[in-house]
UniProtKB/TrEMBL annotation:
Residues 173-223 form the Galactosyltransferase C-terminal domain. It holds the Pfam family Glyco_transf_7C. Gene3D superfamilies: Spore Coat Polysaccharide Biosynthesis Protein SpsA, Chain A. Residues 31-159 form the Glycosyltransferase 2-like domain. This is Glycosyltransferase. Keywords: Glycosyltransferase, Transferase. SUPFAM superfamilies: Nucleotide-diphospho-sugar transferases (SSF53448). InterPro entries: Galactosyl_T_C, Glyco_trans_2-like, Nucleotide-diphossugar_trans. Belongs to the glycosyltransferase 2 family. It comes from Luteibacter flocculans.
Length: 328
């Protein structure tokens, strides 16, 4: 990809620190899958990874990081796959940043591939597609697709179109650690994920910006696709956005004001726009019951754009309410 984003976070045409895989000729790939109380989907994802074809001279090892599940997830995965994977157990739930870092610590690897436990590769060419893509770059961004479940599938597709538009202004709109391969030396040089991001959201975009500032080249791997096996519901989506507004958004906004504004979050920050926060408080009692019973999202008699627009407003209100809860 060419130069994207703001000038001080632009992606150079060639890395300044010499991480090009053309020079490194890497051979060892570690796939890192964090999981928290999600055995069934983690099992499907691991099985799909192990089925993937791996071109020579690469070798692949799967690290599953059990983030303090305490429900037998790690034991069941170990029983299912045995020595074909490595289980890294954390004594307590530390969050996604810490879990991903644990999977990448003290290992010998040329490439790190981060995949969420609920993101199943769509076919056995998944790894080969990433490896082909990253030969010309330092970060290979895969594609995340929704499962074909009606409204939420269409909603996520529409969100991807919006991210494509935003990416013309800031490349981080495309970056997600649900499905991304990164040069291991570059990842370690920037310190991995920042574990200050303990709540939901923004840890992936923070990493992307630090990688870019270290001289990384980014590319999209259209053939490296995963299916996001998450059955969404409106209450869950609103809860996560409220959590992001209350916790991690403050760190991201203070560090990267341009990206915070360009990605659209500044406009729905109740501490920056107090009158919008007041409006969110007034609207939430009306919206909240509709988030608990969201069968109406599948009403095909109501145009999709109208349903999607209402959901976007509800999600924005949830985020606004979250920002009002964070410490000033």
């Amino acid at each position: 990809m060419g130069r994207l984003g703001r000038q001080d976070v632009a992606i150079p045409d060639r890395p300044s620190v010499g991480y090009s895989l053309l020079n490194m000729a890497p051979k060892h790939v570690v796939v890192i899958i964090p999981v928290f109380r999600d055995y069934d989907r983690a099992r499907q994802t691991v099985a799909a990874i192990l089925r993937c074809s791996v071109p020579s001279p690469f070798s692949v090892r799967v690290h599953v990081v059990d983030d303090g599940s305490g429900d037998g997830t790690a034991e069941r995965l170990s029983e299912q796959f045995g020595g074909r994977i490595e289980i890294i157990g954390l004594p307590e739930n530390l969050g996604r940043s810490a879990a991903r870092n644990a999977g990448a610590t003290n290992i010998s690897a040329d490439l790190l591939l981060f995949v969420d436990a609920d993101c199943e590769p769509s076919d056995d060419r998944f790894l080969a597609a990433h490896l082909l893509s990253i030969r010309e770059a330092d970060v290979s961004m895969g594609v995340v697709e929704g499962q074909d479940d009606g409204f939420w599938h269409a909603y996520q597709q529409a969100a991807r179109v919006r991210r494509d538009r935003l990416a013309r202004r800031t490349f981080v709109a495309h970056f997600t650690t649900q499905n991304v391969m990164i040069d291991a030396r570059l990842f370690n040089s920037v310190g991995g994920f920042d574990e200050a991001f303990k709540g939901y959201g923004f840890e992936d975009r923070d990493l992307a910006i630090r990688l870019a500032r270290a001289g990384a080249r980014f590319t999209i791997a259209p053939g490296a696709r995963v299916i996001h096996r998450d059955t969404l519901d409106l209450a869950q989506v609103c809860r996560k956005m409220g959590e992001a507004g209350a916790t991690t958004s403050q760190i991201f906004a203070s560090r990267y004001p341009f990206e915070y504004r360009t990605l659209g979050y500044e406009a729905i920050d109740g501490q920056r726009h107090p009158w919008r926060g007041v409006l969110a408080k007034l609207l939430w009692p009306v919206f909240q019951p509709w988030t608990q019973h969201d069968a109406w999202l599948q009403w095909r008699l109501v145009p999709f754009k109208l349903r999607a627009g209402i959901v976007r407003i509800m999600v924005a209100v949830s985020y606004l309410r979250g920002t009002l809860r964070r410490h000033r």
